[in-house]
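Practice problem 4.
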């Protein structure tokens, strides 16, 4: 391991643009929240069998873990804790700006509404504001109804001070972008940025859905693991920014090495890219090492990395934070003598 490069990746001020809040849960916290031994055993089993499968079964495994996680997070205190620990972990890793995404949820059969869920997260974001500038992206889950998704859009409007975007995520087996298209159109009308998970499975239906997503022209795209050459060229020509999550992509795509990751293809085309963690807790990764692994695999120098991180700041949804982030990076470059 190149310690000097790793230290550089740790110390450079970073931005995180693709992090699912509940997926960031520390594994120790996840274990504590699992109440029954049956659930503990199920988690053990899922962890043991993950690596055996192909992309489809790995995805199924990950989504079973998400279902287990969802069932054991049952109140606002737990969400407060997960948000607190997530921001603490990012801030300790020198992440200075983070867009956390989450699907709003109610607890206690609706007695605690989704607005309380969002307010709890915003409370913690405020507590951390001296250490890290955090914003929210609200996620529509592919399995939800149009009514539920409309409620999420309305919540995004209600909390615009902190909510900076709308996301589509969830089990990629469910091809539902078309169903939600009208809501994403509304988002455009009110200048709410959008990011859509695209190309997560190697199948025909997924490739077909990619076209519908590209026709919509979202502000950013997540993953883009599986795509046709035509779709690839379209994204490059239209300069639609990509959120790439190396460890998560490597695991779900079943790649042997970071060197097989599609980062380089887009990087060499000077495409706008952000390196992100996706689910730092569940995937057991952090942003510094994600950046380090990519730098190592594709022979990026410190100067390349600095320029890459600087360019990525242009992709944030809360443009008010741009100046502050770029200043932090400039201060860092002056102190670290990379040029
Ligand atoms: C698609 C993903 C994902 O919303 O409860 N999520 N959706 N692809 C992925 N790549 C592996 N990783 C996470 O965070 C957890 C939820 O984020 C989505 C899933 O719907 C998961 O249940 P929140 O905070």
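Answer key:
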């Amino acid at each position: 391991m190149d310690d000097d490069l790793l230290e550089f990746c740790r110390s450079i001020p970073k931005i995180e643009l693709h992090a699912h809040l509940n997926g960031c849960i520390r594994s120790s916290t996840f274990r504590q929240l699992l109440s029954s031994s049956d659930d503990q055993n199920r988690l053990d089993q899922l962890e043991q069998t993950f690596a055996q499968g192909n992309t489809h079964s790995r995805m199924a495994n990950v989504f079973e873990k998400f279902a287990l996680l969802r069932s054991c997070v049952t109140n606002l205190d737990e969400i407060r804790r997960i948000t607190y620990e997530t921001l603490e972990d990012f801030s300790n890793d020198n992440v200075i700006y983070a867009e956390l995404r989450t699907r709003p949820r109610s607890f206690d059969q609706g007695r605690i509404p989704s607005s309380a869920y969002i307010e709890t997260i915003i409370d913690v974001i405020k507590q951390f504001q001296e250490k890290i500038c955090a914003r929210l992206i609200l996620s529509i889950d592919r399995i939800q109804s149009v009514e539920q998704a409309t409620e999420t859009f309305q919540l995004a409007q209600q909390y615009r001070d902190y909510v900076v975007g709308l996301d589509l995520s969830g089990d990629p087996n469910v091809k539902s972008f078309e169903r939600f298209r009208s809501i994403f159109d509304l988002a455009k009308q009110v200048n709410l940025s959008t990011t859509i998970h695209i190309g997560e499975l190697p199948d025909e239906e997924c490739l077909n859905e990619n076209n519908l997503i590209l026709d919509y022209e979202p502000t950013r795209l997540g993953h883009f693991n599986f795509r046709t050459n035509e779709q690839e060229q379209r994204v490059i020509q239209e300069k639609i920014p990509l959120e790439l999550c190396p460890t998560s992509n490597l695991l779900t795509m079943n790649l042997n090495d970071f060197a097989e990751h599609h980062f380089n293809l887009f990087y060499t085309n000077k495409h706008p890219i952000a390196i992100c963690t996706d689910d730092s807790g569940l995937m057991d990764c952090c942003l510094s090492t994600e950046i380090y692994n990519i730098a190592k695999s594709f022979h990026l120098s410190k100067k390349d990395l600095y320029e890459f991180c600087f360019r990525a700041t242009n992709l944030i949804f809360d443009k008010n934070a741009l100046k502050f982030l770029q200043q932090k990076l400039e201060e860092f470059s002056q102190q670290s003598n990379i040029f």
